[in-house]
Protein backbone atom coordinates (compact mmCIF):
# COMPACT_ATOMS: atom_id res chain seq x y z
CA UNK A 1 0.00 0.00 0.00
CA UNK A 2 1.43 3.34 -0.99
CA UNK A 3 1.74 6.22 1.42
CA UNK A 4 -0.94 8.15 -0.49
CA UNK A 5 -3.43 5.29 -0.05
CA UNK A 6 -2.82 4.89 3.65
CA UNK A 7 -5.65 6.02 5.91
CA UNK A 8 -4.95 8.85 8.34
CA UNK A 9 -4.85 7.94 12.03
CA UNK A 10 -4.73 10.21 15.03
CA UNK A 11 -4.08 9.67 18.68
CA UNK A 12 -3.98 11.00 22.19
CA UNK A 13 -1.97 10.17 25.28
CA UNK A 14 -3.98 9.18 28.34
CA UNK A 15 -3.06 8.09 31.88
CA UNK A 16 -0.69 5.11 31.51
CA UNK A 17 -1.78 4.52 27.94
CA UNK A 18 -2.53 5.73 24.44
CA UNK A 19 -5.69 6.22 22.41
CA UNK A 20 -5.74 5.87 18.64
CA UNK A 21 -8.60 6.71 16.32
CA UNK A 22 -9.44 5.61 12.79
CA UNK A 23 -12.34 5.95 10.39
CA UNK A 24 -14.68 3.61 12.28
CA UNK A 25 -13.26 3.13 15.78
CA UNK A 26 -11.24 4.63 18.62
CA UNK A 27 -9.21 2.36 20.90
CA UNK A 28 -7.32 2.96 24.13
CA UNK A 29 -4.77 0.59 25.62
CA UNK A 30 -3.73 1.06 29.26
CA UNK A 31 -1.07 -0.85 31.17
CA UNK A 32 -2.09 -1.78 34.69
CA UNK A 33 0.38 -2.24 37.55
CA UNK A 34 0.24 -6.02 37.16
CA UNK A 35 1.70 -5.47 33.64
CA UNK A 36 -1.50 -6.53 31.88
CA UNK A 37 -2.91 -4.33 29.12
CA UNK A 38 -6.61 -3.52 29.09
CA UNK A 39 -8.55 -2.00 26.20
CA UNK A 40 -11.40 0.41 25.76
CA UNK A 41 -13.24 0.44 22.42
CA UNK A 42 -15.55 3.17 21.20
CA UNK A 43 -17.12 3.10 17.72
CA UNK A 44 -17.35 6.34 15.77
CA UNK A 45 -20.91 7.40 15.15
CA UNK A 46 -21.71 8.47 11.60
CA UNK A 47 -23.87 11.61 11.57
CA UNK A 48 -24.69 13.00 8.09
CA UNK A 49 -24.93 16.61 9.26
CA UNK A 50 -21.62 16.44 11.10
CA UNK A 51 -19.94 14.73 8.16
CA UNK A 52 -21.09 17.49 5.84
CA UNK A 53 -19.86 20.20 8.22
CA UNK A 54 -16.44 18.52 8.41
CA UNK A 55 -16.02 19.17 4.69
CA UNK A 56 -16.54 22.92 5.02
CA UNK A 57 -13.24 24.87 5.42
CA UNK A 58 -12.84 26.81 8.69
CA UNK A 59 -16.04 25.28 10.12
CA UNK A 60 -14.62 21.75 9.97
CA UNK A 61 -11.94 22.70 12.48
CA UNK A 62 -14.50 23.65 15.14
CA UNK A 63 -16.51 20.47 14.53
CA UNK A 64 -13.39 18.31 14.71
CA UNK A 65 -12.29 19.97 17.95
CA UNK A 66 -15.65 19.40 19.62
CA UNK A 67 -15.70 15.79 18.48
CA UNK A 68 -12.14 15.07 19.57
CA UNK A 69 -12.70 16.74 22.96
CA UNK A 70 -15.83 14.69 23.59
CA UNK A 71 -14.31 11.39 22.44
CA UNK A 72 -10.96 12.04 24.12
CA UNK A 73 -12.67 12.75 27.43
CA UNK A 74 -14.33 9.33 27.40
CA UNK A 75 -11.01 7.58 26.79
CA UNK A 76 -9.26 9.73 29.40
CA UNK A 77 -12.00 8.88 31.87
CA UNK A 78 -11.44 5.16 31.24
CA UNK A 79 -7.68 5.41 31.76
CA UNK A 80 -8.14 7.49 34.92
CA UNK A 81 -10.54 4.91 36.32
CA UNK A 82 -7.97 2.16 35.73
CA UNK A 83 -5.33 4.24 37.49
CA UNK A 84 -7.56 5.06 40.47
CA UNK A 85 -8.83 1.51 40.87
CA UNK A 86 -5.29 0.18 41.15
CA UNK A 87 -4.34 2.77 43.74
CA UNK A 88 -7.37 2.08 45.89
CA UNK A 89 -8.95 -1.10 44.58
CA UNK A 90 -10.86 -2.20 47.66
CA UNK A 91 -12.46 1.18 48.30
CA UNK A 92 -13.46 1.45 44.67
CA UNK A 93 -15.17 -1.95 44.81
CA UNK A 94 -17.04 -0.97 47.98
CA UNK A 95 -18.24 2.25 46.37
CA UNK A 96 -19.48 0.33 43.35
CA UNK A 97 -21.53 -1.94 45.59
CA UNK A 98 -22.97 0.89 47.65
CA UNK A 99 -23.68 3.29 44.79
CA UNK A 100 -26.07 2.64 41.95
CA UNK A 101 -24.14 2.99 38.72
CA UNK A 102 -25.54 5.42 36.12
CA UNK A 103 -26.32 4.14 32.65
CA UNK A 104 -23.46 4.06 30.17
CA UNK A 105 -25.28 6.55 27.98
CA UNK A 106 -25.62 9.13 30.75
CA UNK A 107 -22.02 8.58 31.83
CA UNK A 108 -20.67 9.05 28.32
CA UNK A 109 -22.78 12.14 27.72
CA UNK A 110 -21.64 13.61 31.02
CA UNK A 111 -17.97 13.02 30.31
CA UNK A 112 -18.32 14.36 26.76
CA UNK A 113 -19.98 17.57 27.92
CA UNK A 114 -17.37 18.08 30.64
CA UNK A 115 -14.60 17.56 28.09
CA UNK A 116 -15.98 20.16 25.70
CA UNK A 117 -16.69 22.66 28.48
CA UNK A 118 -13.20 22.18 29.95
CA UNK A 119 -11.62 22.86 26.56
CA UNK A 120 -13.68 25.99 25.99
CA UNK A 121 -13.08 27.27 29.54
CA UNK A 122 -9.34 26.73 29.22
CA UNK A 123 -9.29 28.50 25.86
CA UNK A 124 -11.25 31.39 27.37
CA UNK A 125 -8.75 31.80 30.22
CA UNK A 126 -5.71 31.68 27.93
CA UNK A 127 -7.40 34.26 25.71
CA UNK A 128 -8.52 36.78 28.31
CA UNK A 129 -5.71 36.75 30.90
CA UNK A 130 -3.17 38.14 28.35
CA UNK A 131 -5.69 40.87 27.47
CA UNK A 132 -5.66 42.26 31.01
CA UNK A 133 -1.90 41.80 31.38
CA UNK A 134 -1.29 43.71 28.14
CA UNK A 135 -3.65 46.47 29.27
CA UNK A 136 -1.44 47.01 32.34
CA UNK A 137 1.50 47.76 30.04
CA UNK A 138 -0.42 50.34 27.99
CA UNK A 139 1.48 53.31 29.52
CA UNK A 140 4.67 51.79 28.10
CA UNK A 141 3.41 49.97 25.02
CA UNK A 142 0.65 52.16 23.62
CA UNK A 143 -0.97 51.91 20.25
CA UNK A 144 -2.98 49.18 18.56
CA UNK A 145 -0.13 47.14 17.05
CA UNK A 146 2.07 47.34 20.16
CA UNK A 147 -0.77 46.17 22.40
CA UNK A 148 -1.62 43.22 20.16
CA UNK A 149 2.04 42.16 20.04
CA UNK A 150 2.41 42.44 23.82
CA UNK A 151 -0.83 40.53 24.33
CA UNK A 152 0.37 37.76 22.03
CA UNK A 153 3.71 37.65 23.82
CA UNK A 154 1.97 37.26 27.18
CA UNK A 155 -0.19 34.50 25.72
CA UNK A 156 2.88 32.63 24.46
CA UNK A 157 4.70 33.03 27.78
CA UNK A 158 1.63 31.86 29.69
CA UNK A 159 1.36 28.81 27.45
CA UNK A 160 5.03 27.86 27.79
CA UNK A 161 5.10 28.39 31.55
CA UNK A 162 1.93 26.36 32.02
CA UNK A 163 3.24 23.43 29.97
CA UNK A 164 6.61 23.51 31.73
CA UNK A 165 5.09 23.60 35.22
CA UNK A 166 2.64 20.75 34.63
CA UNK A 167 5.41 18.69 32.99
CA UNK A 168 7.27 18.69 36.33
CA UNK A 169 4.60 16.51 37.97
CA UNK A 170 5.37 12.77 37.72
CA UNK A 171 1.95 11.87 36.32
CA UNK A 172 1.99 14.47 33.52
CA UNK A 173 5.60 13.62 32.70
CA UNK A 174 4.51 10.02 32.05
CA UNK A 175 1.56 11.25 29.98
CA UNK A 176 4.02 13.27 27.90
CA UNK A 177 6.11 10.11 27.45
CA UNK A 178 3.04 8.28 26.16
CA UNK A 179 2.42 11.31 23.92
CA UNK A 180 5.89 10.74 22.49
CA UNK A 181 5.13 7.03 22.04
CA UNK A 182 1.92 7.90 20.18
CA UNK A 183 3.80 10.13 17.73
CA UNK A 184 6.54 7.56 17.23
CA UNK A 185 4.01 4.85 16.33
CA UNK A 186 2.22 7.12 13.83
CA UNK A 187 5.52 8.21 12.26
CA UNK A 188 6.70 4.61 12.02
CA UNK A 189 3.44 3.55 10.37
CA UNK A 190 3.42 6.48 7.94
CA UNK A 191 7.02 5.77 6.94
CA UNK A 192 6.04 2.23 5.93
CA UNK A 193 8.33 0.49 8.42
CA UNK A 194 7.42 -2.67 10.29
CA UNK A 195 5.68 -1.90 13.58
CA UNK A 196 8.25 -3.16 16.06
CA UNK A 197 9.46 -1.57 19.28
CA UNK A 198 12.91 -0.97 17.76
CA UNK A 199 11.52 0.72 14.64
CA UNK A 200 9.09 2.81 16.65
CA UNK A 201 11.81 3.97 19.02
CA UNK A 202 13.93 4.98 16.03
CA UNK A 203 11.10 7.21 14.75
CA UNK A 204 10.63 10.88 15.65
CA UNK A 205 8.52 11.86 18.64
CA UNK A 206 7.40 15.01 16.78
CA UNK A 207 4.53 15.16 14.31
CA UNK A 208 3.07 17.92 12.14
CA UNK A 209 -0.59 17.09 12.96
CA UNK A 210 -0.13 17.26 16.73
CA UNK A 211 -2.59 19.20 18.87
CA UNK A 212 0.34 20.98 20.49
CA UNK A 213 1.16 22.55 17.14
CA UNK A 214 -2.47 23.57 16.80
CA UNK A 215 -2.39 25.36 20.18
CA UNK A 216 0.67 27.35 19.14
CA UNK A 217 -0.90 28.24 15.81
CA UNK A 218 -3.90 29.70 17.66
CA UNK A 219 -1.50 32.16 19.28
CA UNK A 220 0.10 33.12 15.97
CA UNK A 221 -3.17 33.28 14.03
CA UNK A 222 -4.82 35.22 16.86
CA UNK A 223 -2.14 37.88 16.68
CA UNK A 224 -2.86 38.59 13.00
CA UNK A 225 -6.64 38.45 13.45
CA UNK A 226 -6.55 40.85 16.43
CA UNK A 227 -4.68 43.40 14.32
CA UNK A 228 -7.87 43.77 12.29
CA UNK A 229 -10.25 44.60 15.16
CA UNK A 230 -10.44 47.48 17.69
CA UNK A 231 -8.97 47.18 21.17
CA UNK A 232 -10.44 50.25 22.87
CA UNK A 233 -12.23 50.54 25.18
CA UNK A 234 -11.31 47.47 27.21
CA UNK A 235 -14.79 45.94 27.15
CA UNK A 236 -14.76 46.01 23.33
CA UNK A 237 -11.42 44.22 23.38
CA UNK A 238 -12.74 41.56 25.74
CA UNK A 239 -15.92 41.03 23.73
CA UNK A 240 -14.20 40.73 20.37
CA UNK A 241 -11.62 38.31 21.82
CA UNK A 242 -14.44 36.04 23.01
CA UNK A 243 -16.41 36.31 19.77
CA UNK A 244 -13.29 35.66 17.69
CA UNK A 245 -12.36 32.40 19.47
CA UNK A 246 -14.20 30.24 16.87
CA UNK A 247 -12.64 32.29 14.06
CA UNK A 248 -9.12 31.84 15.42
CA UNK A 249 -9.67 28.12 16.05
CA UNK A 250 -11.05 27.62 12.55
CA UNK A 251 -8.16 29.38 10.83
CA UNK A 252 -5.54 27.71 13.06
CA UNK A 253 -6.96 24.30 12.12
CA UNK A 254 -6.57 25.10 8.42
CA UNK A 255 -3.00 26.29 9.03
CA UNK A 256 -2.25 23.02 10.83
CA UNK A 257 -3.62 21.00 7.92
CA UNK A 258 -1.65 23.11 5.43
CA UNK A 259 1.67 22.67 7.23
CA UNK A 260 1.12 18.91 7.28
CA UNK A 261 0.53 18.88 3.51
CA UNK A 262 3.63 21.02 2.91
CA UNK A 263 5.96 19.07 5.20
CA UNK A 264 7.71 17.28 2.32
CA UNK A 265 8.45 20.49 0.39
CA UNK A 266 12.03 21.61 1.26
CA UNK A 267 11.37 25.30 1.96
CA UNK A 268 7.73 25.29 3.03
CA UNK A 269 8.25 22.50 5.56
CA UNK A 270 9.72 25.09 7.93
CA UNK A 271 6.27 26.67 8.34
CA UNK A 272 5.41 23.84 10.71
CA UNK A 273 8.60 24.08 12.76
CA UNK A 274 7.21 26.37 15.50
CA UNK A 275 4.66 23.68 16.35
CA UNK A 276 7.36 21.00 16.35
CA UNK A 277 9.47 23.09 18.72
CA UNK A 278 6.58 23.28 21.17
CA UNK A 279 6.32 19.48 21.02
CA UNK A 280 9.79 19.31 22.52
CA UNK A 281 7.98 20.32 25.73
CA UNK A 282 4.75 18.33 25.32
CA UNK A 283 6.42 15.04 24.38
CA UNK A 284 9.10 13.07 26.18
CA UNK A 285 11.17 10.06 25.12
CA UNK A 286 9.13 6.93 25.98
CA UNK A 287 10.42 3.70 27.45
CA UNK A 288 10.13 0.40 25.57
CA UNK A 289 7.26 -0.61 27.88
CA UNK A 290 5.36 2.54 26.97
CA UNK A 291 5.97 1.96 23.28
CA UNK A 292 4.59 -1.57 23.68
CA UNK A 293 1.34 -0.12 25.06
CA UNK A 294 1.10 2.36 22.19
CA UNK A 295 1.74 -0.43 19.69
CA UNK A 296 -0.88 -2.64 21.34
CA UNK A 297 -3.44 0.15 21.03
CA UNK A 298 -2.61 0.89 17.41
CA UNK A 299 -2.56 -2.75 16.33
CA UNK A 300 -5.91 -3.34 18.03
CA UNK A 301 -7.30 -0.36 16.13
CA UNK A 302 -5.92 -1.69 12.83
CA UNK A 303 -7.53 -5.07 13.54
CA UNK A 304 -10.92 -3.54 14.26
CA UNK A 305 -10.75 -1.19 11.27
CA UNK A 306 -9.90 -4.13 8.99
CA UNK A 307 -12.80 -6.20 10.33
CA UNK A 308 -15.23 -3.32 9.83
CA UNK A 309 -14.05 -2.70 6.27
CA UNK A 310 -14.47 -6.39 5.45
CA UNK A 311 -17.96 -6.34 6.92
CA UNK A 312 -18.89 -3.28 4.87
CA UNK A 313 -17.53 -4.89 1.70
CA UNK A 314 -19.60 -8.01 2.39
CA UNK A 315 -22.74 -5.91 2.82
CA UNK A 316 -22.10 -4.21 -0.52
CA UNK A 317 -21.58 -7.54 -2.30
CA UNK A 318 -24.74 -9.01 -0.83
What can be said about this structure in brief?
It holds the Pfam family DUF1385. By secondary structure, this protein is α+β, with helices and mostly antiparallel strands.
Account of the 3D structure:
- It is a single chain.
- Helix content is 66%, strand content 8%.
- It has twelve helices and four strands.
- Strands 1-2-3-4 form a four-stranded antiparallel beta sheet, sandwiched between helices.
- α2 crosses α4 and α4 runs antiparallel to α9 (234-243).
- Order of strands, main sheet, comes to 1-2-3-4
Alpha-beta content class = alpha+beta
Radius of gyration: 21 Å
The strand count comes to 4
Largest sheet: 4 strands, antiparallel
Distance between the termini: 26 Å
> What percent of residues are in strands?
5-15%
* Overall geometry: globular
Low-confidence segments = 94-117
Bin the helical content: 55-70%
Transmembrane segments: 105-133, 153-172, 210-229, 235-256
Biased composition (Acidic residues): 82-91
Keywords: Membrane, Transmembrane, Transmembrane helix
InterPro entries: DUF1385
Amino acid sequence: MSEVQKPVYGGQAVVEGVMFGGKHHTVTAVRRKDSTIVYYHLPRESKPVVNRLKKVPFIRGIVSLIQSSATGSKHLNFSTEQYEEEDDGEKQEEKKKETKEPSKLSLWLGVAVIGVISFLFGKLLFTLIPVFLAKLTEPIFSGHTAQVLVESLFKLILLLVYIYVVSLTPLIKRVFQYHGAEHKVINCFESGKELTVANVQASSRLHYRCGSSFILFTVIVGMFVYLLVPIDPLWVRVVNRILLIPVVLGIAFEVLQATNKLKDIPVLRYLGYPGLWLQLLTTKAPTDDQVEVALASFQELLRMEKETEKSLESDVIV
